[in-house]
Amino acid sequence: MEKYNKLVRDKIPSIIxxxxxxxxxxxxxxxxxKTELERKLYEEYQEVINSKDKDRLEELADMIEVIKAxxxxxxxxxxxxxxxxxxxxxxxxxFKDKIYLERVLKK
Length: 107
Known about the structure:
Layout: H1 12-18, H2 30-49, H3 53-73, H4 78-92
Helix pairs in contact: 2-3
């Protein structure tokens, strides 16, 4: 018997039922939900790091879904996060120039 004990997407219990199995679930309280979203974000991060090509895009999409849920806990949405990212890019730049800072020397 496999042990899951993790946050899953909303339709997963129905998919499990349609496969002839019985999902055992519970609804998390807000504190548990936040903690599990943070764990899920780390899980998805690891999957992004270990994936390639089309699979990497799928894992990045999963990360976005978790980020959207975390933003919702703050009363915000993905567009709010994108706006903040754009403002930060205007102020500090992005990562397209591939700059790797090795060290800073004192004058």
